[in-house]
Amino acid sequence: MQDLDHTQLIALVGGIGSGKSIVSRILRVLGYDVYDCDSQAKILMSESDYIKRRIFEEIAENAVECRNRDWRTARINKQVLSDIVFNDAEKLAILNSLVHEAVKLDIQQWWHWNIKRHHKRIAFVETAILYTSGLDAIVDGIWYIKAPEELRILRATSRDTVPRHKIIERINSQRTEYRMLETAVCNGKCIIIDNDNCHALLPQIMKLI
After folding, report:
1. Cα–Cα distance for residue pair 65/29, rounded to 1 Å
2. Alpha-carbon gap, residue 68 to 36, rounded angstroms
3. Are 152 and 17 in contact (CB under 8 A)?
4. For the chain, what is the radius of gyration of the CA atoms?
5. To pair with 173 at 20 to 30 A between CA atoms, which of 96, 102, 129, 149?
6. Using an 8 Å Cβ cutoff, are 62 and 55 in contact?
7. CATH 3.40.50.300, domain 1-33+120-209, yes or no
8. Which residues pair with 10 in a beta bridge?
9. pLDDT, tens digit, for every residue of 16-35?
10. Tens digit of pLDDT for each residue in 84-127?
11. How many whole angstroms separate alpha carbon 162 and alpha carbon 153?
């Protein structure tokens, strides 16, 4: 993964309401590049001919609107795709695998570009699913942005106007990620950034970079 000595690709991880996006914004203001997995995955879903073709062939033809299999002009019908995968665990797994694979490749290309063309020594990847996506295999370090669960729920419900029970469902769906992060912390492979409204973020970040 490393093309030059001492280069580092750091994962910014944490669940909903933890404050990953705030840490990302601070880093960007400080001049660092941050790859946002959520937003880039949406772009790849919209632009990747490969993903559109695989969805058409392996998940459902009616989930992709295209003529004569011209993938360049094809469009994914998000509502149809959503209805299909969230009622079929096997097809959901296929979709997740496709997107994770595409995002991982895109990150690697982005990082090599940063190193070779812009001589960047450190950059960041923001993700909520480091282990599920397999991105743990390509990063050099992990910053775990952490906050008490009740505070995370309050932040998320205030920000997204999403019902409390929906936020709790999302938190519960990522319990495995949290457990693996805690294990990484215990093994010294992960650094915690406290975003509990008691510890200022900037001094913690400046100490690490």
Report:
1. 40
2. 33
3. yes
4. 18
5. 102
6. no
7. yes
8. 124, 141
9. 999 999 999 999 999 999 99
10. 998 999 999 999 999 999 999 999 999 988 777 777 789 999 99
11. 10
Q: How far apart are the first and last CA of the chain?
A: 20
DSSP letter, residue 196 = S
SS3 (DSSP) at 123: strand
Selection from 97, 15, 90, 21 nearest residue 54 by Cα: 97
Helices (H), the chain: 20-29, 37-47, 49-58, 78-85, 89-118, 149-160, 164-173, 175-186, 201-208
DSSP category for residue 130: T
Cα separation, 76 vs 136, whole angstroms: 29
User: Contact at 8 Å (CB) between 64 and 78?
Assistant: no
At 131-181, the pLDDT tens digits run 999 999 999 999 999 999 999 999 999 887 889 999 999 899 889 999 999
User: What is the token pair recorded at 71?
Assistant: 């993938």
Comma-separated ranges of CATH 3.40.50.300 domains in the chain: 1-33+120-209
SS3 call for 151: helix
